[in-house]
Amino acid sequence: MTLYGEKLPPADDRPTVKVTAVSWPDDEPEPAGAPAPGRPAWFRRGRVLLAGGFAAAVLVAGVGAGTWAYAGDVPRGTTVLGAELGGRSRADAARALRAELERRSAELNTPVKVTVGERSVELKPADIGLAVDVEATVAAAAAVDAHPVSRLVGSRTVDPVVALDTARLDAALRRVMGAQGREMTMPAIIFTGTTPKPVYPKPALTIDQAGAADAVKAAWLAAAPVTVPLMEKWPATTREEVDRLVAELAKPAVAAPVTLSTGQGSLTIPPSAIARGLRFSADEAGKLTPRIDVKRLRTALGERLAKIEVAPRDAGLTISGGKPKVVPGRPGRQLDPATFGPALLAVLPKADGRTVTAELTPAEPELNEAKLAELGIKERVSTFTTRFPGGLSSPRSQNIVQAAKDVDGTIVQPGETFSLNAHTGERGYDQGYQDAPTIVNGKLVPGVGGGVSQFTTTLFNASYYAGLEDVEHKPHSFYFSRYPAVIESTIYWPDLDFKFRNNTKYGVLIDTSYTASTITVSIWSTKIYDSVKTEYGPRRDITQPKTVYLKPGPDCISAAGSVGFAQDAYRVIKQNGKVVKREKFSWRYAPEPRFICGPDPAG
């Protein structure tokens, strides 16, 4: 075939790719099917094919670059701690990061110097769980949202995800803080008789746990020291709010009696019972909330309430013939605490209309005979006795006996924490306690409930030698020879408490008994330890007491004084012939001054 006298190549019957012609700068429009003057058709077709080939080359290059840029799970150019993770799968990136961490192991295992207040310590990373979380770090690197262009030519650094055991760090920092810190004084309102007394909140001086954790993580990665400041942490309830609760609720509550009306009759709730049942409880944040403790109110009302309701009785145990004997429980009909408590609380601020209508509902015992049998209380596992002078007629002895009666027969369930303050409540005149010497601000003064510390020490030792978990106790400021050194405890409402936890799978029965000169507490359960003994370290830092002369009078109590010293005691618990626990208890006794009620002879 010829065109304008030129011979064309034979037609090609192979499939062709349809491309769009590219307009070159010197192209001019021409009629369809007409060649441009002076230019053969093959020249124009060649240009079209050239343009198509160029576009295809660009397309292939783009596809190749995109494939390169998006290779792997982690965007290219991504580094962590200097290790290149970009373009890798997650598994390969994790291996690369672990290799880098291994290379830096000496650096990453270097202790972190931490200063808390005025004290410093070097913390080993392993001791507080400091480590790079490899999997989380790779996941963070893979999640980087990189722009397609930056995937080709960009770079980015991803911070490692650091793991830290905050509980172990907090414990370590608190050891460093030591006496520099102070516990929060929780707000409270307590009644002495029918007089409400405010306990104003005071801030804790402590460590900001979250801030400290972040600071230690950053310091570890930067190989730099860190200072953790002490901060004040205030309770949620302010002094002003305590005063408002006193004025708007506590005082009006006990200003007049309340009439309780039920279908079985009516009775009068006197202010003294209201004071016993109205509680102001602070939560962990220090928020003070009023509530009615129906159980305490019921105890305060005594025979009054017994005329209209029948209390359920838990199944219990008594010790008879050296063995526990079951005392069957029984159901009852009582005021419903869920409705009666809020209804009574609602009328207490009022001067008039102080009447509460309530219904009695069936009440089942919390502990029935079947549940009691499952607790495995079958043998005595510990017993402890202390002696007291003065016979049973002295006020101090009467307080000891009253506390023993309050606690006798108590059953502590597995996992339950026993609190002596929570069990007895405030130990006042209405509860059968009397004035007796007690330690306040370093000297003996008359105080209601004096002597209960001796019962507390006896109970503490019984729980201690039963192998039960010590939750809270505080030894006396001064050493008294009637108690074992270090292994003893005082108590003071509401600030000092004694608590233990039943950390066994069996129930625990507290059995108390007394004579004219002794108080005994025994723990009954199922014996799980071979023995529980105390090993003492030597006394050290012995200091002699000074002599203090006091103004004679009815409030002056003389004391012979005692030396001060520090000592360690170790609870050694054996099971199956092996030592399974060795706990250290330490205390420093101040020298008790020799108080003399009289003038100083030296003038």
UniProtKB/TrEMBL annotation:
UniProt xrefs under InterPro entries: Glycopeptide_resist_protein, Vancomycin_resist_VanW, YoaR-like_PG-bd
Q: Which UniProt keywords apply?
A: Membrane, Transmembrane, Transmembrane helix
Q: Which domain of life is it from?
A: Bacteria
Which residues span the membrane? 48-71
Q: Which residues form the signal peptide?
A: none
| Residue ranges constituting the YoaR-like putative peptidoglycan binding domain according to the UniProt record | 249-356
Chain coiled-coil ranges: none
Protein name per the record: Vanomycin resistance protein VanB
**Organism, per UniProt?**
Micromonospora solifontis
Question: What taxonomic lineage is listed for the species of origin?
Answer: Bacteria, Bacillati, Actinomycetota, Actinomycetes, Micromonosporales
